[in-house]
Amino acid sequence: MLTNRRDFIKLVAAGAATAGLSGRALAAPSFTVKALAFDAFPIFDSTPIAALAETIYPGKGSALMTAWRTRQFEYTWLRSMGKRYVDFWKVTEHSLVYAAKATQLDLTPENRDKLLGGFSELKAWPDVLPALKALRAAKIRLGFLSNFTRKMLDDAIKSSGLDGIFDQVLTTDTVKTYKPDPRAYQMGIDAFKLKREEIAFVPFAGWDAAGAKWFGYQTLWVNRAKQPVEELEFTPDVTVSSLAEIVPMLGA
């Protein structure tokens, strides 16, 4: 197992020297990353939604967002375990309604629609487009593997000007469950038609990094929020703070 970025870079260099793979070896000199599967949030910046929440509820937007984000993912896990699936758009709405009640805020229909609408207008982080173009130039296949619905992904891709960048746009709505269910991660193998070890997963959240590692993916954690590693008996193969840092590691 790779334990840190330095070890990762050493193995990349070794793989390039022995296999002539231009630095794209990942877990061992004979191993080549042929595809990257991304969660939505290493690509899309949700901070404008938080700014909107603060504008609507001055002084209380942060509390609303914390409750909303927490319930948003807790509801996906509960619904997966309880086999009570609804899609991520509905989960997002239900968790917002709960969060407003929990923070004692008046969620009018207008404010609800404004906050939910933020997910249809997401923009990419500034480092994303140059990084993705470099990865594509290096012949690395790119795809989403996200809890977002297909419409949410398509809206965000269009809003960010990323049309035509991704080879696969995979939503867990297809398998009616949520990450970290192994059926969700399996979609990457099925869609790319590659071996598990030929795909690296790029998460935003620590729990998603854990789920991908448990499944067997190499995991390149873009830890934009600078969170500690979850206490779930796993270590990401690489932890970086931006997508741009991954590019030279893969020889792109």
Mean of all residue-level pLDDT scores: 89
Poorly predicted residue ranges: 1-31
Highest-level CATH class of the largest domain: Alpha Beta
Instruction: Write the element-wise H/E pattern from the N-terminal end onward.
Output: HEEHHHHEHEHEHEHEEH
What's the CATH topology name of the largest domain? Rossmann fold
How far from one another are the termini?
23 Å
| Number of strand segments | 8
The CATH fourth-level homologous superfamily of the largest domain = HAD superfamily/HAD-like
β content, as a range? Answer: 5-15%
Structural class assignment: alpha/beta
Strand order of the largest sheet: 5-4-1-6-7-8
Tally of contiguous helical segments: 10
What is the CA-atom radius of gyration, in angstroms?
18 Å
CATH architecture of the largest domain: 3-Layer(aba) Sandwich
Q: What characterizes the major β-sheet?
A: 6 strands, parallel
For the record, the count of structural domains works out to 2
* Helix percentage: 40-55%
Structural features, described:
There is one protein chain. The protein has 252 residues and is an alpha/beta fold. The chain folds into 2 domains: 5-44 and 122-249, HAD superfamily/HAD-like (Rossmann fold), CATH 3.40.50; 47-120, Putative phosphatase, domain 2 (DNA polymerase, domain 1, Orthogonal Bundle). The protein is 46% helix and 12% strand. The chain is built from 10 helices and 8 strands. The strands form 2 sheets. It has a 6-stranded parallel sheet, with helices on both faces. Strand 4, helix 7 (150-160) and strand 5 form a beta-alpha-beta unit. The chain is globular. The two termini are 23 Å apart. Residues 1-31 have low confidence and may be disordered.
